[in-house]
Fold each of these.
Amino acid sequence: MIPLKLDVVADALGGVCRSDDDPQTITIHRVAIDSRDAQTGDLYVAIRGERFDGHRFMAEAVSRGAVACVAQRDHPLAGELSAPVILVDDTVKAMGRLASYYRREVLPASATVIAITGSNGKTTTKRMIDHVLRRSLTGVAAPKNFNNDIGVPLTLLSAPANARYVVVEIGSNAKGEVAALAEMTAPDAAVITSIGEAHMEGLGDLEAIAAEKGSILDHVRPGGLAVVNIDQPEIMPFVRRFTRGRLMTVGANPQAKLCVGGATSTLRSSSFRLEGRFDVHLPMPGAHHATNAAATFAVARWLGVASDEIITSLADFTAPEGRTRSFEAAGVTIIDDAYNANPASVEAAVASFRAAGDTRRILVLGDMLELGETSRACHERVVGKALAAELDVLVAVGAEMTRAAARTVPSDAAMRVYACKDAAEASRWLDRIVSPGDAVWIKGSRAMRLDEVVSHLAGTADREDGRA
């Protein structure tokens, strides 16, 4: 963060500063929301959530070095702190106002802000762009999945004075969230990775999802860049009306300016041809990652990185944990895709797994959440895809997936099905059925906690290998 005086911060927050010292003599060097991570020079923002209340930890944050706190003016603890306090109506909204001010008034013009949204592939694309750009430029990217009204401000506020790029991830599970965060971010470049059946409960049908994701294009700065995957036709009305800057379309659609062709995948890697002339290799399974790489290519080239440098960087990209990260344990190939799932991403995983070769393929598939009225049909559809792909074993985890498997897979099917209520039961079944030489692909919504299955498989393999 570029240091700011406390009086400037208070004005940007839209709050009232209560301090025994002159706010102009207090400098803020960083914004923190976790008292355990507070450091000297921090501004601690107390956030009241469903399971915790950050106001309870203001004193701890100050003891760790925070020089001021932001609190809700009606909170009973707001008046008990001896350190400077900025009182606001809503601490989350106030942090968003500070981030918007920081982006427009503090960040230098040399910092290119890149905002990424989409139904699938946001985090992977964010990591790819950061991986490619950091070889020649200084910048920051949103950590983890900082993609909401708390994470986006924190990402913007983390950008230092020498940042040449800032990569922001924008998520949504309700209408209007992308537009609000895009307005705050005011991106120089916007990326829409995909349109798919995600958060249907809050967003509605594919047309509504396309409208939600497409709203980011209305906030691109004049002369900026829009990179859009046009493989889903619902996004096209928003692509056609974009006139604010340069448009770069990507995808397998032959009409895409950066057209992806010949995409193939193994259990360890994937490859494709871009623009009919660039051969691109990714050290991660999943042919669907070709469009994420194409978007990365578009952004990096727009920022002046040479094409051959981009391709070289992509070839040593490491997949984020939980997003088609492939590794081997005791002779078993494990594809950790457990972070999240929706129908499109599951179908992409099944398609890649289908082409995995002669190894025995075990798909661990958890419930896909927030699908609303379409849930039953979507679960049955993905189970049907697994059946059609002639996978060897399906471990269905959760009520929706087990019901879908029971309704969709015939009793005489070659694909064996194990129904499990949760991740723990799935782990116990895998202990019985997994053998060296097998491949296990693990995917499900975050709440299904299938990362525990990944850890269990890796841990079991370590013990069998004689390692502690």
Note: The longest helix spans residues 91-106.
Amino acid sequence: MWYIFWFLIGFGFTTAGGVTLLVYLNIIPIGVTLAEFFIFILHRPESYLLPIGVVIILVTAYVYPSKSKD
């Protein structure tokens, strides 16, 4: 049961981080260069939700016990 909980937490983090990065793409048309954009992204704490969520999902999928017994 805990595997499903952690998977959903990771999915939520990934979704929130992805949406945040998409929203931040709107600052590019106002004259911000790509280098300034990436520096801005690196200083925003909510931008780290995407990689953290992906890591949680991958760890949960890797650790999830299989039903087959060899």
Note: The two ends are 23 Å apart (CA to CA).
